[in-house]
């Protein structure tokens, strides 16, 4: 299974740490986030990879070039950011018409990725996406999902004051070939995956909840927790 890792962001909330380091390369316990992703994905039998870059792109280029994964990574620099859906749509040929992964690479994720793949293989037939979810201690700061008794998403609550639960969208997805084809036809002009795609697929997204550590390292507090 091929994976597109989104790694082009500025990491504004992590400044000054990201003033001179792209967010995807901030170290967790001495290892850059992007390196953790590539190592764990490879161990689960996933790859090859595509990584989009923008902010401090030359540092990401240098990291990949000196990494053990350089032969399995294709780097795509965006001089103007396309948005999460825009990047996916621009690079649909990368998936060769098969199911593939879309990953926000600025999360620290220790989930069982092989288990995630198995969940996708056994999803309800109508589901076009399998979404990784996790329990958060701060639900009002996350996108909270509601599920039916089969684990299918029936509602989204994006950063609201009192969401109905604490099960959050981890922004790590397995997309079916059918969904990727829809991106190429019905949703060709979409830019943001969360607001322009996911909301249209309520009732057709399967949830895989990880019990392992999952953290958005977007703030100094969560970054410190990841390194604790």
UniProtKB/TrEMBL annotation:
Residue ranges constituting the Nucleotidyl transferase domain according to the UniProt record: 3-227
Domain of life: Bacteria
Pfam hit, one: NTP_transferase
Residue ranges of coiled coil: none
InterPro entries: Mannose-1P_guanyltransferase (IPR050486), NTP_transferase_dom (IPR005835), Nucleotide-diphossugar_trans (IPR029044)
Protein name: Nucleotidyltransferase family protein
């Amino acid at each position: 299974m091929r994976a597109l890792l989104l790694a082009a962001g500025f990491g504004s909330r992590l400044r000054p740490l990201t003033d001179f380091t792209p967010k995807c390369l901030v170290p967790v316990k001495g290892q850059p986030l992007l390196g953790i992703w590539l190592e764990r994905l490879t161990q689960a039998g996933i790859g090859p990879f595509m990584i989009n870059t923008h902010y401090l792109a030359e540092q990401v280029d240098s990291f990949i070039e000196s990494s053990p994964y350089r032969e399995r990574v294709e780097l795509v620099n965006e001089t103007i950011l396309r948005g999460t859906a825009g990047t996916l749509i621009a690079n649909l040929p990368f998936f060769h018409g098969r199911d593939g992964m879309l990953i926000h690479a600025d999360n620290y994720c220790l989930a069982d990725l092989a288990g995630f793949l198995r969940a996708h293989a056994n999803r309800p037939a109508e589901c076009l996406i399998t979404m990784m979810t996790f329990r958060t201690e701060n639900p009002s700061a996350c996108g909270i999902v509601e599920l039916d008794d089969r684990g299918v998403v029936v509602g989204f609550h994006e950063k609201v004051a009192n969401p109905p639960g604490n099960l959050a969208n981890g922004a790590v997805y397995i997309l079916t070939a059918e969904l990727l084809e829809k991106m190429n036809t019905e949703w060709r002009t979409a830019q943001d995956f969360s607001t322009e795609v996911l909301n249209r697929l309520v009732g057709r997204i399967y949830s895989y909840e990880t019990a392992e550590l999952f953290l958005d390292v977007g703030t100094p507090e969560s970054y410190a927790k990841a390194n604790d």
